[in-house]
Design goal:
The protein is α+β, with helices and mostly antiparallel strands. It folds into two domains: 36 residues, no CATH class; 130 residues, no CATH class. The protein contains eight helices and seven strands, in the order ααββααβββββαααα. The longest helix is centred in the last third of the chain and has 13 residues.
Length: 187
Protein backbone atom coordinates (compact mmCIF):
# COMPACT_ATOMS: atom_id res chain seq x y z
CA UNK A 1 0.00 0.00 0.00
CA UNK A 2 1.27 3.50 -0.83
CA UNK A 3 2.07 6.00 1.84
CA UNK A 4 -0.73 8.66 2.01
CA UNK A 5 1.64 11.61 1.55
CA UNK A 6 2.96 10.06 -1.67
CA UNK A 7 -0.54 9.67 -3.08
CA UNK A 8 -1.23 13.36 -2.54
CA UNK A 9 1.84 14.39 -4.59
CA UNK A 10 1.20 12.09 -7.55
CA UNK A 11 0.01 13.93 -10.67
CA UNK A 12 -3.30 13.15 -12.28
CA UNK A 13 -1.99 13.65 -15.87
CA UNK A 14 0.65 11.80 -17.88
CA UNK A 15 4.18 13.21 -17.41
CA UNK A 16 6.63 14.14 -20.09
CA UNK A 17 10.16 12.70 -19.74
CA UNK A 18 11.45 16.08 -18.46
CA UNK A 19 8.73 16.29 -15.78
CA UNK A 20 9.32 12.69 -14.75
CA UNK A 21 13.06 13.22 -14.46
CA UNK A 22 12.56 16.36 -12.35
CA UNK A 23 10.33 14.40 -10.00
CA UNK A 24 12.94 11.62 -9.81
CA UNK A 25 15.71 14.12 -9.13
CA UNK A 26 17.70 13.53 -12.32
CA UNK A 27 19.39 16.26 -14.34
CA UNK A 28 18.60 16.49 -18.03
CA UNK A 29 21.22 17.54 -20.54
CA UNK A 30 20.44 18.65 -24.09
CA UNK A 31 22.60 19.11 -27.17
CA UNK A 32 23.42 22.74 -26.28
CA UNK A 33 25.16 21.77 -23.02
CA UNK A 34 28.97 21.42 -22.86
CA UNK A 35 30.11 17.83 -23.00
CA UNK A 36 26.99 16.61 -24.82
CA UNK A 37 27.25 13.12 -26.25
CA UNK A 38 24.47 11.66 -28.42
CA UNK A 39 22.38 9.05 -26.68
CA UNK A 40 20.96 5.83 -28.04
CA UNK A 41 17.81 6.94 -26.22
CA UNK A 42 14.59 6.79 -28.26
CA UNK A 43 14.22 10.51 -27.56
CA UNK A 44 17.62 11.13 -29.19
CA UNK A 45 18.47 14.66 -28.06
CA UNK A 46 17.70 14.20 -24.36
CA UNK A 47 20.16 12.40 -22.12
CA UNK A 48 19.83 11.83 -18.39
CA UNK A 49 22.97 12.81 -16.52
CA UNK A 50 23.53 11.22 -13.13
CA UNK A 51 26.78 13.09 -12.38
CA UNK A 52 26.69 16.90 -12.65
CA UNK A 53 30.52 16.95 -12.84
CA UNK A 54 30.50 14.92 -16.08
CA UNK A 55 30.43 17.86 -18.56
CA UNK A 56 33.61 19.19 -16.92
CA UNK A 57 35.25 15.75 -17.12
CA UNK A 58 34.43 15.64 -20.85
CA UNK A 59 36.23 18.98 -21.40
CA UNK A 60 39.51 17.13 -20.81
CA UNK A 61 38.84 14.46 -23.47
CA UNK A 62 40.58 16.64 -26.10
CA UNK A 63 43.88 16.10 -24.23
CA UNK A 64 43.68 12.28 -24.09
CA UNK A 65 45.58 11.58 -27.34
CA UNK A 66 48.45 13.88 -26.32
CA UNK A 67 48.66 12.32 -22.85
CA UNK A 68 48.63 8.79 -24.33
CA UNK A 69 51.28 9.67 -26.92
CA UNK A 70 53.65 11.21 -24.35
CA UNK A 71 53.00 8.36 -21.89
CA UNK A 72 54.02 5.79 -24.48
CA UNK A 73 57.03 7.77 -25.72
CA UNK A 74 58.39 8.73 -22.27
CA UNK A 75 57.60 5.58 -20.26
CA UNK A 76 54.67 6.88 -18.20
CA UNK A 77 51.25 5.42 -17.52
CA UNK A 78 48.26 7.50 -18.66
CA UNK A 79 45.67 8.01 -15.92
CA UNK A 80 42.32 9.43 -17.10
CA UNK A 81 41.47 10.04 -13.41
CA UNK A 82 38.04 8.50 -13.74
CA UNK A 83 35.65 10.18 -11.34
CA UNK A 84 37.82 13.30 -11.11
CA UNK A 85 38.14 16.35 -13.31
CA UNK A 86 41.63 16.11 -14.80
CA UNK A 87 44.27 13.91 -16.41
CA UNK A 88 47.63 12.53 -15.24
CA UNK A 89 50.83 10.80 -16.34
CA UNK A 90 52.44 8.67 -13.64
CA UNK A 91 55.84 6.99 -13.36
CA UNK A 92 55.50 3.59 -11.73
CA UNK A 93 57.92 1.24 -9.99
CA UNK A 94 60.18 3.99 -8.68
CA UNK A 95 61.38 4.61 -5.11
CA UNK A 96 59.90 8.10 -5.32
CA UNK A 97 56.49 8.85 -6.81
CA UNK A 98 56.35 11.22 -9.78
CA UNK A 99 53.67 12.50 -12.11
CA UNK A 100 52.35 15.18 -14.45
CA UNK A 101 48.87 16.52 -13.69
CA UNK A 102 46.26 18.56 -15.54
CA UNK A 103 43.52 19.93 -13.28
CA UNK A 104 40.98 22.71 -13.07
CA UNK A 105 42.39 25.78 -11.33
CA UNK A 106 39.21 26.23 -9.28
CA UNK A 107 36.61 23.76 -8.07
CA UNK A 108 34.48 22.53 -10.99
CA UNK A 109 31.36 24.21 -9.58
CA UNK A 110 33.15 27.59 -9.73
CA UNK A 111 34.73 27.06 -13.16
CA UNK A 112 33.64 28.27 -16.59
CA UNK A 113 31.75 25.32 -18.16
CA UNK A 114 32.99 26.14 -21.68
CA UNK A 115 36.61 27.33 -21.31
CA UNK A 116 37.79 26.89 -17.70
CA UNK A 117 41.10 27.94 -16.19
CA UNK A 118 43.41 24.89 -15.96
CA UNK A 119 46.76 24.11 -14.35
CA UNK A 120 49.40 21.79 -15.81
CA UNK A 121 52.00 20.85 -13.21
CA UNK A 122 54.28 18.07 -12.15
CA UNK A 123 55.09 16.71 -8.76
CA UNK A 124 57.44 14.31 -7.04
CA UNK A 125 57.35 12.99 -3.50
CA UNK A 126 59.25 10.37 -1.54
CA UNK A 127 57.85 7.04 -0.40
CA UNK A 128 56.85 8.55 2.94
CA UNK A 129 54.73 11.12 1.09
CA UNK A 130 56.62 14.20 2.30
CA UNK A 131 58.30 16.41 1.36
CA UNK A 132 56.61 17.24 -1.95
CA UNK A 133 58.27 18.99 -4.88
CA UNK A 134 55.76 20.76 -7.16
CA UNK A 135 56.20 22.91 -10.26
CA UNK A 136 53.49 24.63 -12.30
CA UNK A 137 54.22 24.70 -16.05
CA UNK A 138 51.01 26.25 -17.32
CA UNK A 139 48.17 28.19 -15.76
CA UNK A 140 45.51 29.64 -18.04
CA UNK A 141 42.54 28.93 -20.30
CA UNK A 142 41.90 25.41 -21.56
CA UNK A 143 41.56 26.67 -25.14
CA UNK A 144 45.05 28.22 -25.04
CA UNK A 145 46.62 25.03 -23.64
CA UNK A 146 45.12 23.03 -26.51
CA UNK A 147 47.54 24.76 -28.92
CA UNK A 148 50.69 23.81 -26.98
CA UNK A 149 49.81 20.70 -24.95
CA UNK A 150 52.32 18.37 -26.65
CA UNK A 151 55.23 20.73 -26.04
CA UNK A 152 54.26 21.32 -22.40
CA UNK A 153 53.73 17.60 -21.70
CA UNK A 154 57.09 16.69 -23.26
CA UNK A 155 58.81 19.31 -21.11
CA UNK A 156 57.02 18.17 -17.94
CA UNK A 157 57.76 14.49 -18.59
CA UNK A 158 61.47 15.07 -19.16
CA UNK A 159 61.81 17.40 -16.14
CA UNK A 160 59.96 15.14 -13.70
CA UNK A 161 62.05 12.10 -14.71
CA UNK A 162 65.23 14.03 -13.80
CA UNK A 163 64.12 14.71 -10.20
CA UNK A 164 66.17 12.75 -7.69
CA UNK A 165 65.29 11.75 -4.14
CA UNK A 166 67.99 14.16 -2.92
CA UNK A 167 66.38 17.06 -4.82
CA UNK A 168 62.99 16.20 -3.30
CA UNK A 169 64.50 16.21 0.20
CA UNK A 170 66.44 19.44 -0.41
CA UNK A 171 63.85 21.57 -2.27
CA UNK A 172 60.56 19.86 -1.44
CA UNK A 173 57.96 21.38 0.84
CA UNK A 174 56.81 19.87 4.10
CA UNK A 175 53.22 19.51 5.29
CA UNK A 176 53.62 22.64 7.40
CA UNK A 177 54.84 24.62 4.36
CA UNK A 178 51.90 23.42 2.26
CA UNK A 179 49.38 24.28 4.99
CA UNK A 180 50.92 27.72 5.50
CA UNK A 181 50.74 28.42 1.73
CA UNK A 182 47.12 27.22 1.57
CA UNK A 183 46.12 29.47 4.47
CA UNK A 184 47.93 32.52 3.10
CA UNK A 185 46.44 31.89 -0.38
CA UNK A 186 42.92 31.71 1.05
CA UNK A 187 43.21 35.12 2.73
Amino acid sequence: MMHPSFVKTMPTKAWSRREASRFAGESIRTSSAPGYRPSPSPLGHILAMNNPREPFERLFDVFDDSFKRIAEREGFVFDPRTGHVGRALRLKDRPSKKGVFLDLKAHWMKSDPVDPEVVLSYGAWSQSGLPVLLKVLYEGKRSELMTCIDEKLRLAASEVKMISEELIQREGRSLEDLLREAISGAQ
